[in-house]
Amino acid sequence: MKTKNLFFLLLSSSLFAQGFNYERDWATYFGGTNTYLTGIYEDSSSNISADVITTYLNPTGGNTPVSYYNQFVTSGSQTYIGNNPNNLYGKFSSPGNLLQAEYKASYLPTSRQATYFRDDLGNRYDIEHTITAYTALPSGVWLPNNNESTDVIFAKYDTNNNLLWKTYIPNTGESHNFEVDSNGNIYIVGYTKWQTLGDPGTFQQNFKLVYDVSGTLLPNTYIVKLNPQGQKLWATYTPSSSINGITVYENNLYIFGNNDIITTEATLSTPNTFQTAKGGQFISKFDGMTGQRIWGTYYGTPGNTLDAGLSDIKADETGVYVTGMTFGIMGGTYYATEGAYKSQTNDGIDMFITKFNLSGNRVWSTYIGTDGYDSYSGDRGLDIKNGKLLFTGLNQGNYNISTPGAFVSTKPNANSEDLFFGILNTNTGHPDFISYYGGTANNPSAAIDARCSFSKSSNGFYLYGATYRNNGFTSTNGYQQRIIYPPGVTMGRSGYIVKFNPKFLSTSEINSSQDFVLYNNPNNGNFILKGSVLNKEPHIISINDMSGKLIYSRNVQKSKEEHFNLEDQLPKGNYILSIKKSDKTLVKSFKLIIK
């Protein structure tokens, strides 16, 4: 074989890694009791913005002094306003030091306002709801006037908190689901009885007149796309009873939700997708430029609309990923594929994670759980980056869900609910790790909110949410290491933020990784792998397709050079070639291109 110029694409060295290869960088509570952290945002300097809703307390001994709330703000910043809930904003440096903290009014004269999202540029998006007086907004936006008494106000602010524009939008429900794409366009989903919302050329222009048993008109679900200036680009109805999640990748929109609004119909699937038979949930892909549906698939045991629920969705170039949980079918196997990490649910209450390809067909699916009660933790409990799928969940009972060597490998509270988090390999659906987070609880029955996101600037990730628990949630270098209670109060919920970073590779690991060379890439199936490390100990060479399916594997004894003649075994396409030690520790991965 003639040696050509070296050409290779190096994938993340931890693509198929096992074990907990991370360390907690810092962890802190944030805010007083009765706080709920709605989201975090990492800017280009790796600073972290946190948005929190703080509810005013009235303990048995009387009113909580304002000084209690003001201890959480930085000098010169806005202090607590009135005796109503406030919005608390915080900004932390990359090492976890508090840079700024201030309150913003939540109770406005005719509405309540909270921040629910920040885009990649740091612009913030607020919802004003519970509106008591609908007044005209400045013109130049989609809806300067409301159409329904359930409308809310959608507002955009810049990074300096300057208002850019406001528009009325139809009701967004409790979840306030919206996404912003890389061009600043905004996608919003919700419910409406407005019958002229849809645009020609979109998926469903016309409103469906559907009534419940009492004769009340049911709202239709909708999707609307706004440009960065708050003007409508298109809007469409959907035939679903609800839209519960949304994500954007490139120019496409992915949603999930529940049953058809007309329960006798089956209009949420399209041919040649995973499941055309009616089920309890659906997943759809829309063209973000036109509002037309590209495909749709039902997801759930055919004929059973109550077997499970979905909680979150993410997409990238590798596929579409959803999380959910089952609702009591003992011994069920529907949400697992062959070779899954967990192939069935024994007790009927398990979390699951599923990968679909970009054409709407299932690639893999696995249960995540024990013989106890295992559930998702809500929206924003899923994120994806560089072949890794980060997730959070809740585990109740006395069974251990963690993998060996995890950050917290034993269940902190027997027969009570505990938070867990993990990372799956997007190719295989098997975990790099699953770990608990937190310590023993002073009030084990109190709920935990657990969300997650990958860092944009590093290979680290964040856990965040709200908890009543005092142990195990912060680090010794954390800014606020305990929940601070007001006078007369001994229990309450506080926001928390945790940052994990990868452990650094040792010099020997780095040298080992850098030693390998792959010749003839792209190739026709015939290629050479060289590396002095191969001559030091046995290795396993494996080739997987991009869905994670194992195509080829070879045990290699001590040899500095290995020749592969796989022209008849590898069709044209892209593959992952992995080099592992005999204990299956990943050493290096390449993207192998067959032409």
TrEMBL record:
It holds the Pfam family Por_Secre_tail. The keyword Signal applies. Residues 519-588 form the Secretion system C-terminal sorting domain. InterPro entries: Motility_Chemotaxis_Reg, Secre_tail. The keyword Signal applies. It comes from the Bacteria. This is Secretion system C-terminal sorting domain-containing protein. It comes from Chryseobacterium piscium.
